[in-house]
């Protein structure tokens, strides 16, 4: 590589001029990791920026192991690096400062433990897998640009302000169904739906049969609950449930238009059945074709009994009502458990009953003397 005139001399002097400057990286060994030692302190006075490598971060497996508190740069100013870059660095710096004097988690209060958890998140957020460090970390190297890193702070601002510290725990008698940090939760209770956000007032409430909606970042997770109990407090919600069903697809019924469609379809089915029965009716009627037996074998004696049509129609109406009670009402309450197939089965079941009754009436099987 061609060097500018007197470049090597300028590097040795570690200086720059108004005409041009050169970037030089100097490796300074700090005895025993003591940054207050006179030898490295003298060198730091001539450097525009320092990146301090920490043995503690290496022990944690965080790379690059740059200590964000001991490292500094004279270029980190709003007029040089930009306002957003400066504010991001300062906010991270103030948050990490709170963890300096903390030594043991066992002796900390809840607020201090929350501070430690946020600082640990920031430490990992500032890490990056280097391509040359793959043999040490075992993870493939990745490159994240400066602009993306700064803007990533905006999308993860909850790391600093505690937005991601809202934890949700859902468990049934057999297992833990959900244990993660969330943005908000919409829960069905006996008094109606409630929306739970971070820093919600402590309450304890019974959980009703209905839908549980959990919002992560930009994604909603929907579950069907079959009753239970919920406790909210200290930025945590614990839900104990009798039964839960989680699905990647869930249809929520917001109005009753589907029931109007069901009534219209149910009204069209008998009309269609009568039209089809006229087409399928025997052209040349005979005793065999008019018989209610379809096997072609003549009955011996009084092998079949005639009964009143009222009984059949009463049974038909009862079963149709029973289908609506058994299928449609639970289907509207918790659709993802029963699914669209149950609604189709209900329609098919009613269709078979109506077609069967029309067919029997056309053949005279329901007549009595």
TrEMBL record:
Subcellular location: Membrane; Mitochondrion membrane
Start and end residues of each ATP synthase F1 complex delta/epsilon subunit N-terminal domain: 172-240
Alphabetical list of PROSITE patterns matching this protein: ATPASE_ALPHA_BETA
InterPro entries: ATP-synt_VA_C, ATP_synth_F1_dsu/esu, ATP_synth_F1_dsu/esu_N, ATPase_a/bsu_AS, ATPase_alpha/beta_chains, ATPase_F1/V1/A1_a/bsu_nucl-bd, ATPase_F1/V1_b/a_C, ATPsynth_dsu/esu_N
Enzyme Commission identifier(s): 7.1.2.2
Catalytic reactions of this protein: ATP + H2O + 4 H(+)(in) = ADP + phosphate + 5 H(+)(out); a ubiquinone + NADH + 5 H(+)(in) = a ubiquinol + NAD(+) + 4 H(+)(out)
GO BP field: proton motive force-driven mitochondrial ATP synthesis
Annotated ATP synthase A/B type C-terminal domain residues: 92-146
Main location: membrane
A molecular function GO annotation: proton-transporting ATP synthase activity, rotational mechanism
One Pfam family it belongs to: ATP-synt_DE_N
Keyword presence, Thylakoid: yes
Cellular component per GO, a single term: proton-transporting ATP synthase complex
Domain ATPase F1/V1/A1 complex alpha/beta subunit nucleotide-binding positions: 11-73
Transmembrane regions: 260-283, 311-331, 337-361
Protein's UniProt keywords contain Plastid: yes
Record's keyword terms, sorted: ATP synthesis, ATP-binding, CF(1), Chloroplast, Hydrogen ion transport, Ion transport, Membrane, NAD, NADP, Nucleotide-binding, Plastid, Plastoquinone, Quinone, Thylakoid, Translocase, Transmembrane, Transmembrane helix, Transport
Membrane topology: Peripheral membrane protein; Multi-pass membrane protein
PANTHER family: ATP SYNTHASE (PTHR15184), ATP SYNTHASE SUBUNIT BETA, MITOCHONDRIAL (PTHR15184:SF71)
Role of this protein: Core subunit of the mitochondrial membrane respiratory chain NADH dehydrogenase (Complex I) that is believed to belong to the minimal assembly required for catalysis. Complex I functions in the transfer of electrons from NADH to the respiratory chain. The immediate electron acceptor for the enzyme is believed to be ubiquinone.
Similarity-based family: Belongs to the ATPase alpha/beta chains family.
Descriptive protein name: NADH-ubiquinone oxidoreductase chain 3
């Amino acid at each position: 590589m061609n060097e500018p005139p007197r470049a090597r001399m300028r590097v040795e002097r570690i200086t720059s001029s108004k005409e041009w400057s050169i970037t030089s990286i100097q490796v300074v060994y700090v005895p025993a990791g003591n940054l207050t030692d006179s030898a490295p302190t003298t060198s730091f006075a001539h450097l525009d920026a320092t990146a301090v490598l920490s043995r503690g971060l290496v022990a944690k497996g965080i790379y690059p192991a740059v200590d964000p508190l001991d490292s500094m740069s004279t270029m980190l100013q709003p007029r040089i690096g930009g306002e957003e870059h400066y504010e991001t660095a300062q906010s991270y710096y103030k948050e990490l400062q709170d963890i300096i004097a903390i030594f043991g988690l066992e002796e900390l209060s809840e607020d201090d433990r929350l501070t430690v958890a946020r600082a640990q998140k920031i430490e990992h957020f500032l890490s990056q897998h280097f391509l040359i460090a793959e043999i040490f970390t075992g993870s493939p190297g990745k490159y994240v640009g400066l602009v993306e890193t700064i803007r990533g702070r905006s999308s993860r601002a909850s790391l600093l302000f505690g937005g991601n510290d809202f934890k949700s725990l859902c468990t049934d008698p057999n297992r833990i169904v959900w244990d993660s940090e969330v943005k908000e939760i919409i829960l069905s209770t006996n008094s109606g739906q409630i929306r739970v956000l971070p820093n919600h007032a402590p309450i304890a409430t019974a959980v009703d049969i209905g839908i549980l909606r959990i919002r992560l970042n930009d994604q909603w997770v929907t579950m069907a609950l079959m009753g239970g109990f919920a406790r909210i407090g200290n930025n945590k919600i614990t839900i104990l449930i009798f039964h839960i069903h989680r699905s990647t697809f869930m249809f929520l019924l917001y109005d009753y238009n589907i029931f109007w469609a069901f009534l219209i379809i149910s009204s069209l089915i008998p009309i269609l059945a009568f039209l089809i029965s006229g087409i399928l009716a025997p052209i040349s009627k005979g005793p065999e074709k008019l018989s209610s037996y379809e096997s072609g074998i003549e009955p011996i004696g009084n092998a079949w009994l005639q009964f009143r049509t009222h009984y059949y129609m009463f049974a038909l109406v009862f079963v149709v009502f029973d289908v609506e009670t058994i299928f449609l009402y639970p289907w509207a309450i918790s659709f993802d458990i029963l699914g669209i197939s149950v609604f189709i089965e209900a329609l098919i079941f009613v269709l078979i009953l109506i077609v069967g009754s029309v067919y029997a009436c056309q053949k005279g099987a329901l007549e009595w003397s």
